[in-house]
Structure formats: C-alpha cells, structure tokens
Design a protein that fits this description.
- This protein is of the alpha/beta class and about 230 residues long.
- Helix content is about 40%, strand content about 15%.
- It has a single domain, classed as Aldolase class I (TIM Barrel), CATH 3.20.20.70.
- It has an 8-stranded parallel β-barrel with strand order 1-2-3-4-5-6-7-8, surrounded by 7 helices.
- Helix 2 packs across helix 3.
- The longest helix has 13 residues.
- It is globular.
C-alpha cells in the first residue's frame, strides 16, 4: 500500500515546478526565486522544488504547497544534497521533502545512501531519491525512501540521455515498485509530455527548465530562427 504521508498525498497527480537559477545568472536571487514559485503556484503547481538554503527559506515563507529542497554543492559526482549535513540543513531551512542523490557513487561524508536515509527518518525527515537508473531506484526503495524519481537519468552515464523524459525508466520503476510513489523529472518540455508521463503512472511530475528558465526557453526559440 502506498504511503499515506500527507505531504506526499498533497502532490499526487499534480505538477511540481522546479524554481532554480544557475550561478552567475540574472535570476539567481532568493527573492526572485520566491516570486517565481508564487507565480507557479498561482498557475496551478501543487509543489515547488528549489535549491539552496536561502531559496528554500524564502520560498517556504511565500507558498502554501509542499517544498522539495536540495542543496547543490560542487559539480562532479554526488553533488545534489551530498551529505547528511546538507540534508539536515535543507530540512532546517523549511523543506517539507529533502531530495538527495541516490546513486551508488561515493558520498563525501563516507555514509551510504541507506545510512543517510535512516538518519533522516530518525529525525522525521521525508526523503526523495534522485535516481539515474533502475539500480538506483532499487537501492532507494530498499533504503526506505519515501519517494523515488527519474531526476538523474541520462546524467550519470548509466542510461542514454533521451530527448524528452525517460519513459522507459519511469514505466519500469512504476511497475516494479507499486508501493512507492514515483515522480518523473527531467526533460519534460511540453504539456503533451507532461500528460504522457502522468498517463504512464507517475505519482507527480517535476518541470523546471520549460517553465522557470527563460534563458533556455529563449535559446529554444532563437535556434529556430532562419538566418
């Protein structure tokens, strides 16, 4: 039977919008990301995913939907909420759900993914597993993750990077782990793709770039210009 965690139930069947800006970009400011999150909620988002302690705190203070928090530290290997300390800080900043890299790669603090999840559960933290492969998903489920997601598919070298969302991995995860909510995240660029992933059994879907990253969206349009 699926988890009855009320926070997880609140996002079921809905759209979660990722509000993140990369270092050095004009929109990289907590207040700006909070405004972006508010606009997304006004448009129908049932949850927000965001990065960094300042952004988590700023967004949590402005929206009444569940906030999925991460802390990116570094750019290689495990850098999405890489240690127990990072995860604890995300929870302390106000994240309702803390997402972390669920791959088998070495973690900076020497803990295994399972040890990290256990410590967070002991502190009452709801954990989302960012997976890059089916093996990651199995590891995450065995560790007791509250949610598993396709977030890292195509970015860890285990699966080919698809043009759109990794539908094959999504379907495999949904069918293999019926008692664990499965989120689809990564390269959902159109409303049609969103509808497709939901029809394949995703608990919810996360869309970021196509909604909240104007630089990328502008590039998509500019690339189609005839010069």
């Amino acid at each position: 039977m699926m988890s009855r965690n009320p926070v997880i139930e609140r996002v079921k069947g809905g759209l979660i919008v990722s509000c993140q800006a990369y270092p050095g970009e004009p929109l990289r400011h907590p207040e700006t990301m909070a405004q972006m999150a508010m606009a997304a909620v006004e448009g129908g988002a049932v949850g927000i995913r965001c990065q960094g302690l300042a952004d988590i705190a700023a967004i949590k203070g402005q929206v009444d939907v569940p906030v999925i928090g991460i802390w990116k530290d570094g750019s290689q290997g495990v850098y999405i909420t890489p240690t127990l300390r990072h995860a604890r800080c995300c929870a302390a900043a106000g994240a309702d759900i803390v997402a972390l890299d669920a791959t088998g790669r070495p973690r900076p603090d020497g803990r295994t993914y399972a040890q990290t999840v256990q410590a967070l559960h002991d502190e009452g933290v709801t954990v989302m597993a960012d997976c890059g492969s089916f093996d990651d998903a199995r590891r995450a489920v065995d560790a007791g993750s509250d949610i598993i997601s396709t977030t890292l598919s195509g970015y860890t070298g285990e699966r080919e990077k698809t043009d759109g969302p990794d539908l094959e991995l999504l379907e495999y995860m949904v069918s293999s782990f019926p008692d664990t909510p499965v989120l689809c995240e990564g390269r959902i660029h159109t409303p049609e793709q969103l509808h497709d992933v939901m029809s394949r059994g995703a608990w919810a879907a996360v869309v970021g770039t196509a909604i909240t990253h104007p630089t990328s969206i502008t590039r998509w349009f500019a690339a189609r210009l005839d010069h």
